[in-house]
Design a protein that fits this description.
- The longest helix has about 35 residues.
- The protein is mainly α.
- It is built from 16 helices and no strands.
- The chain folds into two domains: about 90 residues, no CATH class; about 230 residues, MetI-like fold (Orthogonal Bundle), CATH 1.10.3720.
- Belongs to the binding-protein-dependent transport system permease family. CysTW subfamily.
Length: about 425
Amino acid sequence: MTVTEEAPKASAADPVPAPATVLPSREPAEVPPQPRRVGGTTRSDVLALCGAAASGLSIALLLFGKIAPLSGTVGFVVTAYAVSLVIYAVLVGLDHDGPAVRDRVMTVVLWSAAAVLFIALVLVIGFTVWRGRDALPHLNFFTQDMQAAGPLDPLTLGGITHAILGTLIMITIALVITVPLGLACAVYLNQIRGRFSRFVRTIVEAMTALPSIVAGLMIYATWILILGQEKSGLAAGFAITVMMLPIVIRAADVVLRLVPANLTEAAEALGAPRWRTVWHVVLPTARSGLATAVILGTARGIGETSPVLLTAGYTAALNADPLHGPMVSLPLAVFTFVKSPEPTMIARAFGTAVVLMALVLVLFVIARVLGGRGPGQQSKRQARRAARVSQRDAQRFEQRRHPVLFLQPHEASASADTDPRTGENL
């Protein structure tokens, strides 16, 4: 038998002890993972890149100068670049995980490729301008033709006016044919999608890789040999059209695919027919991309030489008639000038190339001005026209709602003598 002692009773004078509480131990909160930066550069990235470049250059110098019997500038640059990439990946891997390392390395590779392409473009343009610097300062180079100038004549005699005019005429003919046909075919492939859309798409893709000499031979065989027409700027325009058309169709088709489907669905839900949806919704939305497609086709066609040589012939005199007589273009003039061993003719060739590049730049700017605005961006003229159309629509809606307020005076007096409920005369 267990005897328990009774606890002494607490009196009212004794203070009440505070209850003993034990707080549970809390584990340290986990720090949420920080999002990885996908853009921008930090100080550590710059230092790692500079260190990797210096290390790659040093190792390449050792390999090509001391250790290995290697030689060659190209091999030295490739070796230094490859070693730099490896060292940069190792340095980035000390502070980041695998995805970050791959991201930084691919960023360096893409920036390097862009830099190489930019340097190549600058070298090509700079070399062309430098070699043509002797011919460009002369005003007669832009105002005369080569009818009275020969290979031994100085640069103060003769010019390329006939080539400039011929190029403008040929590319204008090609654009007049290519732009409506190319855009219509792209709309057919993307919006209509008829029975022969796959066949047409296959033909367009096959024509994209068509050699330019084949296009010139086709026009030469059909237009000149079979139909009996003479060599002219019109025939050259047809040959350039064959080269430009698949480029414009492919590029325009890709651009039209990017138009959101909900825009066309909304237009058709409002009752607009298909042609009105394409004309007022699809084409304005893709206007900037379509301008780019036309620029790509123009750049392809304006630099063709062999089709022009087969279909337009060659002349040293100015000919502004595209229907009769041979006509020369800027690329064909460059090809003819550069074959001569005389320094003056070679200078004319490089000067003509500079003019050709400037002409392409001018056409690019014009196309950007005409079609460079994005969807919803209107010029001042288009904004005023839209405002006038909106005012006419508002008046028409108001007239339907309150027809009596918009009646003529004689119509209003006649309607006042008529019972509005029955239409009978009072």
